[in-house]
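Appendix B. Chain record.
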Amino acid sequence: MLFGCFSLFSQKSIQYDLLLQGGHVVDAKNHLSAVRDVAILDGKIAAVAEHIDPSTALKTVDVKGLYVTPGLVDIHVHVYASTGERNSYAGDNSVFPDGFTFRSGVTTVADAGSSGYRNFEDFKAHIIDRSKTRVLAFLNIVGAGMRGPKYEDNLSDMEPGPAAEMAKRYPGIIVGIKTAHYSGPEWTPVEHAVQAGTLANIPVMVDFGANRPERPIDILLTQKLRPGDIYTHCYSGLRDELLPDGKVNPGMWNGRKRGVIFDVGHGGGSFAWRIAVPAIQQGFLPDSISTDLHIGSMNTGMKDMLNVMSKFLAMGLNEDQIIAWSTWNPAREIHHEELGNLSLGSIADVSVLRVERGKFGFTDMYGARMDGDRKFVCEMTVKGGRIVYDLNGISRPDWHHLPPNYTNIGDPKWDALNPSRMHP
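Structure tokens predicted for this chain:
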């Protein structure tokens, strides 16, 4: 008997829980960009092949004409939303992750310094441990976290030792050290962040704060940061990333040669067309795309991960590049190579994306618009082998084909969409 897209087969023939059939698979780690079927078993990628017999899967979803990618990895977000503190990224400026991730194809985020060593465990207990999204963290070098100038300009609360000890207490969850927003002339925040990162053997992410002549960007990128450290907000233009003559600052090129990583970190005030377009035309491409998600950026030019990715389509970059910058590259940058790919045996985090064609507009931090004719839309998101978001119900049966008193139409092996809550 067939119920829409459900097929019942003898238990003997079932080899996979979920089969995504006929999509264009883009997997940068494995240098794959081709139409393939992807099969999942027990939360892991079990097969990627030109054809997999649908009779071998408990559930088959037709994804022809769509991109099938690893789950998107957003390494710059602010999701410490549980404290109730006003005007604080360790509070009301942050968002709860699950409301903003799966619907954009994102399965993993890294909070970028909302908490420091003094409040990280509160962040872990209230957000990381309770979220369906995989939430990792860059630990702020400021012990009190990202709570405004009173805290973030306090040099006495930037202690490498305690920050490194907290990072070593939670390996794999704390993926780096963050320094941000400092308004003074000293190098102390960067130097102490690098010391903590060295002690804990993790990268540093730098939001360089105020543009001070005493600490120019070229010194940061060529002398202060280590290979593998991350410069976020790379297209803001707020710290001389582009010189007055329109050329990319030589310090950016030299930093890249040293192995410094350049991340988009769009945010509400860190991406301008007049910086990004000439930089990209000169060949200065990002290493990773991230959102800097918070209550301000999501309602202005940034919006969400797919909107930021779509801006790079508008600037003439191709889908494969953009997907690599949003999956495998960020996974490597935070030393989580088990993510961001569709290798056999890897965690089955998968995004199914549509590239829509039409007339679209994308705005930058200043409200300037660029028109585009393509944009990414998330059709379906799979995390750990379970469907957690399905925009148009492509994994669901048509109700006309179900029994008149249908209730539970899913299977807990692949379906996380609360089928037991569905009623006729």
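Further analysis of this model is presented in Appendix C.
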